[in-house]
Q: What sequence folds into this?
């Protein structure tokens, strides 16, 4: 009997030991989180936090919502730029940088259609003559035109982004 009791105790001990060795402490840790989905692209929490940090360095007026909307706009523009680039044959100096690709897209698809008539430039010069002090119209014409083109570009880009947002699937999970 003693041998049988010792066997039972050993078997129970082994079973308990096996059971306890199988049960381990499990901790779940969130490694990454999706902040937004734009069509088939995602914006991760780490990307958002990095952009928020960069925006904070440039000025205190950057809110989380503005940063996220800027990231969504960038994804939309980049998708359009890549889609249009696929249709054209890549030349020897293919642009791989995403920022350069978006800039090229804006220049070709939006900015190239902006025309500022000479009358609008002259009118701006007359209204802001004190700003230009002793400089003649033809000395500041290009500077005024650039300013007016940039103002028009901001408006057209905003309208274009609204159109892209209307057509896209956007889900914010912040």
A:
């Amino acid at each position: 009997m003693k041998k049988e009791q010792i066997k039972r105790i050993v078997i129970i001990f082994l079973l308990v030991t096996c059971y306890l060795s199988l049960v381990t402490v499990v901790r779940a840790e969130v490694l990454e989180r999706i902040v937004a989905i734009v069509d088939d692209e995602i914006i991760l929490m780490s990307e958002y936090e990095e952009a928020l940090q960069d925006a904070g360095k440039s000025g205190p007026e950057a809110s989380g919502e503005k940063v996220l909307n800027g990231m969504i706009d960038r994804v939309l523009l980049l998708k359009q730029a890549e889609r249009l680039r696929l249709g054209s044959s890549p030349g020897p100096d293919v642009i791989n940088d995403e920022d350069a690709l978006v800039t090229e897209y804006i220049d070709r698809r939006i900015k190239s259609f902006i025309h500022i008539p000479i009358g609008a430039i002259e009118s701006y010069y007359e209204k802001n003559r004190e700003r230009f002090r002793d400089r003649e119209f033809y000395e500041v014409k290009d500077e005024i035109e650039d300013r007016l083109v940039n103002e028009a570009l901001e408006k057209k880009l905003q309208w274009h982004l609204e159109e892209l947002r209307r057509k896209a699937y956007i889900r914010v999970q912040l």
In short: The chain has one domain: 2-172. The longest strand covers residues 34-38.
